[in-house]
Design brief:
The chain is an alpha/beta fold. The protein has 3 domains: 120 residues, Methylthiotransferase, N-terminal domain (Rossmann fold, 3-Layer(aba) Sandwich), CATH 3.40.50.12160; 243 residues, tm_1862 like domain (pyruvate-formate lyase- activating enzyme, Alpha-Beta Horseshoe), CATH 3.80.30; 60 residues, Nucleic acid-binding proteins (OB fold (Dihydrolipoamide Acetyltransferase, E2P), Beta Barrel), CATH 2.40.50.140. Helices cover 35% and strands 16% of the residues. It contains 16 helices and 21 strands. A 6-stranded parallel β-sheet has the order 2-1-3-4-5-6, sandwiched between helices. The chain is globular. The two termini are 35 Å apart. It is a single-pass membrane protein. It comes from Myotis lucifugus (Little brown bat). Catalyzes the methylthiolation of N6-threonylcarbamoyladenosine (t(6)A), leading to the formation of 2-methylthio-N6-threonylcarbamoyladenosine (ms(2)t(6)A) at position 37 in tRNAs that read codons beginning with adenine. Its cofactor is [4Fe-4S] cluster.
Length: 576
């Protein structure tokens, strides 16, 4: 391109300004006569903008959470505690999985099918782009499984920190808390018993009296998750029972991996605990004992019989036998023989007339022969257990039984069917037709046609759906029986007795959450210290976090200005 040429020589640039142009001082003077026009500020809109989070932000504590629990009553209690803490913090617990922002999946590791359901639920949650927190025995026992990688996990003894884990997960982080609770090096029973809780059934309180066990059964995966025995102190358990009755509970379930072993690690025993609990049970309310293995109840038989005869304790005990073959029991490392089991059952049947004995049996354990299985069949035929849990053996990864020579799958299935056929060959309740019984009504039947009650022996009795019966002791006449139940007609002139000392909590209401405890709980979780409603407290959290965001923004601007000044100084220095 040809270069431009100038024929005229220019003077200094100041000479270009003509005489007619206004001077700088004139322009400055004219500025003083300019009246600025004030812009009206939409105060309401600005307030809304300050109170509302940015559209791309995530504020924990206001989301919907769906909780699914598999497995035993201990696991169900853990699920209730986690739901209570999350609701107390401000999260909404929903029964609609599709509406939830986060799924809390509380797993069971006892059998393969339960873990399969758990794994499938994780896959479904991922397909629906849900946030996920995993809990229960599966991730605790095997946290390195491939399908658990990258997901948040809360251990069975860390459920008091569920709010922290959920909050970090909602922020997009992966958190894992799998440690043990200890006091001066001694393992504790688990999270505190006074945590907020949402009972699945407001009339029933599930209390875990200890965690873990003293056994080392070769088939058990739960041991890997729950560990060795760790018991709660008696006074804490009694306080929890008292609180439950003050909230309208009329039935308490004691649960653990082995209730019979309770207290051996802290210098006490199960009968001592039971007598303390009986003292605080209101008249008409009932206590149900959980599962106990034969070895740890043998030395307490006399005292246990006295407790089970108490009018406020169900004459019911769950004692797993697993097999009637001593050879199989030895391979299982059950630490008792069939004669020990018979001694326990025979003694209790004699001393506690009418007692219900429930038991468990595993079909097809490695090495079980046809003769071993027939011994088990004979035991069932002899005792005619009214409640019998028949389980086909599943080898669980990492257990000694998984490495043993397995019984063919078809044989296991056939034995399970054969034993089930024996169980269904007798009717345990036919002889009770015509009896008049006192029953405690606590829930609705699965088909919603009846209310479910239990008599003195924890046998299931279906009664008409009269709302005045729920949570009450009712006198009924038994007129029909089935394999697993009886039907009772309320006596016309009988008194309906109310065992609860106060009105039960509403379904979904948080247990133990007074204004004071709410402040203390939120303080521990890092939440606001006000006793506002759930809606207000959520708003407070939004405000707190927005202030934090604004402070972070101010810090970012300050740093940016400092960097700009530094670069400007370097630039000036280079050109000088």
């Amino acid at each position: 391109m040809p270069s431009a040429s100038c024929d005229t020589l220019l003077d200094d640039i100041e000479d270009i300004v003509s005489q007619q142009d206004s001077k700088p001082q004139d322009r400055h003077f004219s500025r003083k006569h300019i009246v600025p026009k004030a812009r009206r500020r939409n105060t309401q809109k600005c307030l809304q903008e300050e109170d509302s989070p940015p559209s791309d932000s995530t504020i924990p504590g206001i989301q919907k959470i769906w909780i699914r629990t598999w497995g035993c009553s201990h696991n169900n209690s853990d699920g209730e505690y986690m739901a209570g803490q999350l609701a107390a913090y401000g999260y909404k617990i929903t029964e609609n999985a599709s509406d939830a922002d986060l799924w809390l999946l509380n797993s069971c590791t006892v059998k393969n099918p339960a873990e399969d359901h758990f794994r499938n639920s994780i896959k479904r949650a991922q397909e629906e782009n849900k946030k996920i927190v995993l809990a229960g025995c599966v991730p605790q026992a095997q946290p390195r499984q491939d399908y658990l990688q990258g997901l948040s996990v809360i251990g069975v003894q860390q459920i008091d920190r569920v709010v922290e884990v959920v909050e970090e997960t909602i922020k997009g982080h992966s958190v894992r808390l799998l440690g043990q609770k200890k006091d001066n090096g001694k393992r504790l029973g688990g999270a505190p018993l006074d945590l907020p809780k949402i009972r699945k059934n407001p009339l029933i309180e599930i209390i875990s009296i200890n965690t873990g066990c003293l056994n080392a059964c070769t088939y058990c995966k739960t041991k890997h998750a729950r560990g060795n025995l760790a018991s709660y102190p008696i006074d804490e358990l009694v306080d929890r029972a008292k609180q439950s009755f003050q909230e309208g509970v009329c039935e308490i379930w004691l649960t653990s991996e082995d209730t019979g072993a309770y207290g051996r690690d802290i210098g006490t025993d199960l009968p001592t605990l039971l007598w303390k609990l009986v003292e605080v049970i209101p008249e008409g309310a009932m206590l149900r004992l959980g599962m106990t293995n034969p070895p740890y109840i043998l030395e307490h038989l006399e005292e246990m019989a006295k407790v089970l005869n108490h009018p406020r304790v169900y004459a019911f005990l769950h004692i797993p036998v697993q097999s009637a073959s001593d050879a199989v029991l030895m391979a299982m490392k059950r630490e008792y023989c069939v004669a020990d089991f018979r001694r326990v059952v025979d003694f209790l049947k004699e001393k506690v007339p009418g007692i219900t004995i429930a038991t468990d049996i595993i079909c097809g354990f490695p090495g079980e022969t046809d003769q071993d299985f027939q011994e088990t069949v004979k035991l069932v035929e002899e005792y005619k257990f009214p409640s019998l849990f028949i389980n086909q053996f599943y080898p669980r990864p990492g257990t000694p039984a998984a490495k043993m020579e397995q019984v063919p799958a078809q044989v296991k299935k056939q034995r399970t069917k054969d034993l089930s056929r024996v169980f269904h060959s007798y009717s345990p309740y036919d002889h009770k037709i015509g009896e008049r019984q006192q029953v405690l009504v606590t829930e609705e039947s699965f088909d919603s046609k009846f209310y479910v009650a239990h008599n003195r022996f924890y046998e299931q009795v279906l009664v008409p759906k009269n709302p005045t019966f729920m949570g009450k002791m009712v006198e009924v006449d038994i007129y029909e029986s089935g394999k697993h139940f009886m039907k009772g007609q309320p006596v016309a002139d009988a008194k309906v007795y109310t065992p609860s000392i106060s009105k039960p909590l509403a379904k979904g209401e948080v247990s133990g959450l007074t204004a004071v405890s709410k402040r203390e709980f939120r303080s521990r979780c890092g939440g606001p210290l006000s006793s506002m409603s759930q809606h207000d407290s959520a708003g407070s959290r939004v405000g707190l976090r927005l202030r934090s965001l604004r402070q972070d923004g101010a810090l970012t601007v300050s740093v940016g200005l400092a960097l700009f000044a530094l670069l400007l100084a370097l630039f000036v220095k280079l050109y000088n």
